[in-house]
Structure formats: C-alpha cells, structure tokens
Amino acid sequence: MHSSGHYPQHGGQLQSISNRFGIPVSCLLDFSANINPDGPPASVLSALRASLEEIETITAYPDLDSTNLKEAIANYSEVLPGNIIVANGFVPLLEAALRAFSIRRCLLVVPAFVEYRRTLERLGVEIEIEVASAERSFEYDVNRMLDRGCDAILLANPQNPSGICQHPSFFERLVEEASKRNIYILLDEAFIDYVPELSLTAKAQRSANLIVFRSVTKFHGIPGLRVAYAVAHPSLATSISEALPPWPITTLASRAVIAALDDHPYALRTRSNNLERRRTLERNLRRLSLPIYPAAANFLLFRIPPEIDAFAFWQLMITEHRVVLRSCADYEGLSEGHFRVAIKTPTENNQLTVAIEKSLSELNHSSS
C-alpha cells in the first residue's frame, strides 16, 4: 500500500529523525546503517589518542602518496600497493574512475545504492537501467547487460540492499566478456569483508577493465573517518589517482585505518559474530512470515505484507518502539514494502523482532 510522507535519503540519519519526531538521538535504536555493532577495534582508539599527542599530526600535511596506508591495505587485501587508490569515501573514487576513463554511457544495475545514480548524473553520464528483480532473487543476465551498448557497467557484490552475493565465477565471466567489447566493470565490494574469499580484488590487479571499490569503515565500525579504496591494474590505478584531488585522507584517518586493518583477531571475530547473529535474526523474522532474501553481508532485506501501509509501519517503529529501519522505497526496482535492517547485537536484534511483530499486529488491527 502506498502512503504519504517521506523517508530519509540515507541510512544513519538519526539527527534529522530525532528533530522530526522529537525523540532524543540517544533513545533511538538505529538499524538503518550497516555498521559493525561491536564498535571499532580498541587499537583504533589507541592509535588516535597517540596521534593527538604528536603536534605534527595536525601541523604537518598528510603524506601525499598515503604510502603507509596503501601498504596496510595491500597486506590486508593481498594486493600490491601499486594497485591501490585511496580516497575519503567511495563516491570520490567512483567519480575519479568515471572521469579517468571518459565514461559516456553506463549500465546501472538496480536496485542499488542511491549514490550511484546521483554520481553518474552529476558527471553527465548517460544512464541505462538494468533491473535485477526481487521476484527472480536479484539474478543478473550477463548477455543482456553486455548488449546494452554501454562503456561501463556499475554493480555491487554483495548487493545492497538485498545482501545477496554472487560467486566470483559469475563476475569472472562478465569481466572476460566485457573486455572483448572494451566495457569497464565498476564493482562495489563495500561489504565483501564479510565474505573475503568471494572478493575480486586479486583479479582486478591483472584486468585491463575491472575496478573494484572497497570500504574499510563499515566493517571496522569507523564511518566517521572517511576512507575507501579501489583496486585496479597499475596503469588504471595511476589514471584514477590523477583524477583525484590531492591529500584525500587526513593523517588521523590514515593512522586509525592502519591500526584497524592490522587487527586480524577483530576481523575473524566480526565475521563469526555476524554470521551467527544474522542466522538467528533471519530465523526470527521468518517466524513472522516475512519474505527474506539470502544475505551474505551484515544486513537483511525483508518485505512487509502489501496490505500494510509501509510509511505508517516505518513511522510506528520509531514513535512506539524507538527503532529506525531503512525503507527501500527510494531504491529503483523495489516496491515500497521492502525494508533493510542491519545486524546488531543479539539483544538489539531481539528488540527489533518484537517491535516488528507488535507494529505489524497493530497496523493489521487498525486496517481491519
């Protein structure tokens, strides 16, 4: 059912929700942003404190080449520093790649992160849309994607908002076929740290047409420090770097990320915690008879019954239960009743299940 009202454009917009509903931010339980619920590694806070003890951290310019940061990323993602480009977030990297390769026409596979379209439009790139439909479990049709006459294809693995992850063999085939037609594959792996064995970073080192984008801030719980990186063949990496403004990463952010990436036990713990919590939450939501998609990341996509007013449900979750969900109404190719929830701590995930059950029951009664 369609309803009046508007949703925030991104997850994690707690301040605007707080202002809108008159609920203090500290009272809101945020399931709308996919951030590690256990917080950053302790080593990150130690690195930041130590850095602030040295006045040069803020009086000297950051390293123009981000040498230490690239080395840390190279060790973490098992590529060479010469394959890595760093920037203060995914969007600047995508913009730089689109400019570097003079992309005129890009195939955008939807549903997808809303910033993809905004970035393409800002750069005046013509957009062709390919819908991976929820009814077909968000499957891709390789031949159809390649036949659309575009010079780039932009897509994600795991997908956002479904969390579905394709096997690398699918992308390997896509990259091979695309290279024969001089088509660039722009692959966003923002959530691949949950299934690193499925990453295409190793292939990106050797491919003349594959650029893989990765994030360090979601998995390591530090989105306030804007750091992302891309992996590409050295010649492509150089072109992308040259299309970026100088000093994209602050010294503080760089040191924090180096500390985060060096904490291997944290990464292993995060993966196993997330897997266990996701399975439990999935089971509990299925008990409420909600359709859910098989996710591989740190979030789940579910759909509420079509007879329930989606906006009223989203609002009730906030006003009655102080729980913020990510409505997927602004994701192209998805109907309004789809909602994405982050995986949080077991206690919070239980609170979420109870809140959803009560809200659906209340709206069911009021509509009958």
Q: Would you mind describing this structure in some detail?
A:
By secondary structure, the protein is an alpha/beta fold. Helix content is about 45%, strand content about 15%. It has 14 helices and 12 strands. The protein has a 7-stranded mixed β-sheet, sandwiched between helices. Helix 4 packs parallel to helix 11. It is globular. The mean pLDDT is about 95.
What does the radius of gyration come to?
A: 21 Å
Overall structural class, as computed from helix and strand content, comes to alpha/beta
Mean pLDDT: 94
Characterize the main sheet.
7 strands, mixed
Overall morphology: globular
**Amount of beta strand:** 5-15%
List its traits:
368 residues, alpha/beta, 14 helices, globular
Write the layout of secondary structure elements.
Elements: H1 14-21, E1 29-30, H2 42-53, H3 56-59, H4 67-77, E2 84-87, H5 90-100, E3 105-110, H6 114-122, E4 126-131, H7 142-146, E5 152-156, H8 168-180, E6 184-188, H9 201-206, E7 210-215, E8 228-231, H10 234-242, H11 251-261, H12 264-287, E9 299-303, H13 310-321, E10 323-324, E11 326-327, E12 338-342, H14 346-367
Helix pairs in contact: 2-11, 4-11, 5-6, 5-10, 12-14, 13-14
Write a short abstract of this structure:
It is built from 14 helices and twelve strands.
